[in-house]
Amino acid sequence: MFPELLRIGDFHITSFGAMVAVSFLVAFWVSGMEFERKGMSRRLHEHVFLAALVGGILGAKFLFLIENVPISDLLSHPKHYLLLRGGLTFYGGLFLALFASFVITKKHKESFWKVLDATAPALVIAYATGRVGCFLVGDDYGIASTLPWAMPFPKGSPPTLEAVHPTQVYETIIMSLVFLALWKMRKKDRPIGWLASIYLVLAGLERFFVEFIRTTTESPISGLSVAQVMALILIFIGTLKYMSVRKRSESP
User: Which of 73, 97, 185, 240 is the most buried (most CB within 10 A)?
Assistant: First the structure.
């Protein structure tokens, strides 16, 4: 574990913060290549990325606060909690980033699903990269395990001396493989929305199943975490879109 990369006086850079920054840079680079390959506007790419960046950070922060801070405390000291370093929940960021991107694509009179096709591989590799940061800082680990590769996180957030599943590593490996699959499939001649629908289904399935061995936030639905509910929403949307795309491609 390397939770802190650099400290100068009261200023410090965490490994998580550094990897989040790297994940955004990787996403910008990979999505930029796809926008260019598809002949899409560079200006549109920049606007979508900026909207997703701002929406992603704000959404991730808001969902984290909703899950972890009592509403009364949040309303009493909103500035204090909003300015806290760290504390990001991925699905809050993803959904708000998608909504912000949808607004931008409509403003540019472009298809949202075409944009999501171009950004799907970037979203996957950015997620895999961000999970490296979670591992380095000791966050989002799993439940106790006796497997040979289970490990403690004595300086984690929160710390644990008990050996647990390194679910951050599992997710990085799985999503890296998903990225390779999407990157290979992206040049196939398929209707708009095809690659995006596959991304939504695979990303949802990955998170849904890994949640069973993660320490996570329970939802009002018994037996399911908040992340699993959101993952099911992704799977549902992706499945509907895939069926729509397939039906359209089979039409004479």
Answer: 97
